[in-house]
Model the fold of this input.
Amino acid sequence: MDIQSLKLRVIQEHYPDSDELEEANNIFNKISGFIKEEYGLESHFAGSAGRGTSRKNDKDIDIFMLFPESTSRKELEEKGLEIGKKAFEEFSGKHHAEYAEHPYTKGEIKGHEVEIVPCYDTDPENIQSAVDRTPHHTRWAKNNLDSQQRKDVVALKVFLDAQGLYGSSLEIQGFSGYLCEILIAYYGSFEKLIEKASQWQKEERIEIKASDEEFPSDFVVVDPVDPGRNVAAVMTSEKVAEFVFKAFQLQKNPSYSMFERKEDFSEFELKKEVDRRADLLVLEFDRPDEVNDILHPQMRKLNRLLEKKLRKASFRIYSSGVYVGESCRVFFELDRHLPVNKVVKGPQVYHNEKHLNQFMEKYSNVFVMDERLCAKVDREFTDAQDLIKNVLRGEASDLKMRGVPGHLAPKVEEFRFVDPISGEEKWLKYLYQKFNCESK
Done:
């Protein structure tokens, strides 16, 4: 089966039918009609559902209320929450306030997860926050994607989701829905995107609307609404590389299995996988009372700190990762133990006398190896666990001085090492997928 045939099958199975699309539109029309009648504000149907690129059974409806630019920030936030609350009450929906750049109201109406978000009705050049940009993204997608391309966006989302690459949260750092829409608009179809992406180079720049803006990332997708913004900025180079490889695999050997997310989980298979790998150190501490978007960057910073210390001490690391759930965990797959001694290499014996004398004064038992002066010295740490304990010793103030992120430090004070095959099921599934057990 070729890629186009696979795509058509994916669309048939994952694109919402007309009844589902009509139901979402009806809910939006009722809520937006209430807001218009009671408060005189226009509303915008945003998100994937508003752009016609949602997957079957997504059930998400994002409604952006358009406030005049003359509205103060304080009034926008207060009025936005008030209107959101009244709208949910009008349609007997459960709701609560959420807080991002602007506070907004989130809840459920008729089986759909609804978000009612206040934003400014402004030109793209005058946006005051990220949420103000959203209506412009929706208009752009509606104007630049035909009906088939909207379906191709869904096929792309299904493919990315199956590979663990879909989602722009700071936990996943993958492809956003808007990025998917731009890529399909740029290349014209899902199969053309796969063909070209399999040939991407490390430095890749995609721009529908020309921009002179320079970006620090290797992978740049210029926002056609705001040419000073890189839509792919949140993505890691690792996620881009994974997508290039997965596109190459799909191009070389088209298979429907590449569109199927493997949800099966086997603790027995995970245990076998852990046993056959190198040593696995898992350190755990209680979760700070912060949202995921704050915790994930700080967890990755902690991971980098420890990895740098381990590598500097000559521990070989094969993989590492961070996990945020009921608790926080950092893991390292590595060779945990090192010999008591290490060899320090000095100058070549043919070097000048000053350097030879300096090395001999610093070290005893000097010998020649590969034409260099060398010496054996005791390692400070021969067990990776002892090194981590040393780095993370002391109180929160000491930990911060050593580079432990501020939100984590008070909890890291009481960290512990735990059995990898322990803890909540979500952690075990994370580790299972991290090790790609399902493909063994």
Q: What stands out?
A: The mean pLDDT is 93. Residues 341-378 form one domain.
